[in-house]
Amino acid sequence: MTVGTPGSEIELETSRLLLRPWRVAEAPVQHELWTERDPRVPPHRRIDADGHPTVAELEDAIRTQPVWSTGLLAVERKTSRDVIGYCGLVDSGRGPAAEPELAFELLRRVWRQGYATEAATAVLDWARASGYERLWATVWDWNTASRRVLAKVGFTETDRKEVDALHGTTLFNTRRL
Ligand SMILES: CC(C)(COP(=O)(O)OP(=O)(O)OC[C@H]1O[C@@H](n2cnc3c(N)ncnc32)[C@H](O)[C@@H]1OP(=O)(O)O)[C@@H](O)C(=O)NCCC(=O)NCCS
């Protein structure tokens, strides 16, 4: 594992995957993730009626978002060299300060092959090496696959929940590193 320092590029390696910063040319993969999102996901996380975000807007975001001690890394398969989604850490502001959230999302065609679990395990090692002592993860109550991944990598549910009558209940999970 290469831990990020200013000027160096982060790269996490597992048996099947490489996790590293997004490249501008991979914006179409991000766009595909946006188009595939479950209709229960809130509108600000889905392509709007005017087609935003566009591929060009996602390209701009990749150009301007540096990855250092947190960030969402592109997940690349080592054998086929294709990018299948992301996994990483976000400073969402929803947990205590200095305790980021684990996040992951993969293209539907690769689901149920253990990739999210494998990627998340590498990100936990990255977080530990970066000096974090605890992580959070928020998940909709209806998101069985994500809840299962979080349980597999050692997260436990806390008492904290946020109820949204429209989209479901957000469950707060945590894991000590
Ligand atoms: C969550 C997500 C990343 C999981 O990716 P994945 O590579 O399929 O995950 P894994 O294969 O590592 O593990 C999935 C687990 O959930 C289980 N699972 C998947 N779908 C399920 C379902 N509908 N019902 C019950 N279990 C399910 C799988 O059987 C597996 O558990 P197991 O190893 O005990 O059999 C993927 O579903 C996704 O991108 N979802 C949309 C984005 C998202 O929800 N992100 C998380 C936001 S909190």
From TrEMBL:
The N-acetyltransferase domain, residue ranges: 17-177
PROSITE patterns: GNAT (PS51186)
GO molecular function annotation: acyltransferase activity, transferring groups other than amino-acyl groups
Entry keywords, A to Z: Transferase
Pfam families assigned: Acetyltransf_3 (PF13302)
Superkingdom of this protein's organism: Bacteria
TM segment ranges: none
Name used for this protein in its record: N-acetyltransferase
Organism of provenance: Streptomyces triticagri
